[in-house]
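Hi support team,

I've been running sequence recovery on a batch of backbones for a student project. Most finish fine, but this one hangs at about 90% for roughly twenty minutes before it completes. I'm not sure whether the input is malformed or the queue is just slow. I've pasted the structure tokens below so you can try to reproduce it. Let me know if you need the job ID as well.

Thanks,
M.K.
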């Protein structure tokens, strides 16, 4: 007589997962950016979501990419922080023309609230310039952003980056050195692991 094999009913893993709505930080008005699923709240910490300024602010700024990272939950809401801001390659290429110089620099600094960040700056000139002028532009950019960061929180620095204020400040200072076409923050990155918020689940 053939031996019957008992088959356990397969468990649908998706049914065990909870659905969390991901919201952007306060600087973007806590708008919803989508949903993620997880069985445990703890496993959400550090999860990342990619979006753009056009989606966060209902604007035409498709070229500004914003990376969000989960740092806590409140009920079935996932709270986030900005861990990266970056310009698209297509946008940078569209402003790259012959007969000009692009001065690029990258440096780390600390904000008023002790957040370590890495900044990449792009300075587009209107003409070819000397190496000594390039050094002056890099020095200006480093000193200016460092001074701003020392007096501003990380969220404030992000806000002034994505809404163009930081680039405008650098442009106005840099054009006193050489004629400029534009100044862009190519990339802003939050260094270090995510700092989880001390929030309690409210179900």
């Amino acid at each position: 007589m053939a031996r019957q094999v008992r088959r356990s009913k397969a468990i649908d893993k998706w049914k065990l997962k909870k659905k969390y709505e991901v919201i952007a930080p306060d600087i973007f008005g806590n708008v919803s950016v989508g949903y993620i699923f997880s069985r445990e709240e703890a496993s959400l910490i550090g999860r990342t979501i990619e979006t753009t300024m056009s989606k966060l602010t209902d604007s035409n700024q498709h070229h500004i990419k914003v990376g969000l990272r989960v740092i806590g939950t409140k009920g079935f809401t996932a709270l986030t922080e900005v861990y990266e801001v970056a310009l698209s390659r297509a946008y940078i290429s569209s402003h790259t023309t012959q007969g000009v110089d692009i001065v690029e620099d990258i440096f780390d600094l600390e904000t008023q609230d002790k957040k370590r960040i890495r900044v990449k700056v792009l300075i587009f000139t209107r003409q070819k310039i000397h190496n000594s002028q390039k050094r002056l532009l890099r020095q200006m950019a480093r000193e200016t952003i460092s001074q701003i960061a020392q007096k501003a929180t990380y969220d404030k620095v992000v806000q002034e980056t994505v809404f163009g204020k930081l680039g405008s400040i650098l442009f106005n200072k840099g054009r006193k050195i050489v004629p400029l076409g534009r100044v862009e923050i190519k990339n802003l990155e939050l260094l270090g692991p995510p700092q989880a918020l001390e929030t309690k689940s409210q179900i």
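--
Follow-up from support: It reproduced on our side and the slowdown came from queue contention, not your input. Strands lie at 18-23, 32-38, 48-52, 64-74, 77-87, 102-110, 116-125, 180-190. No action needed from you.
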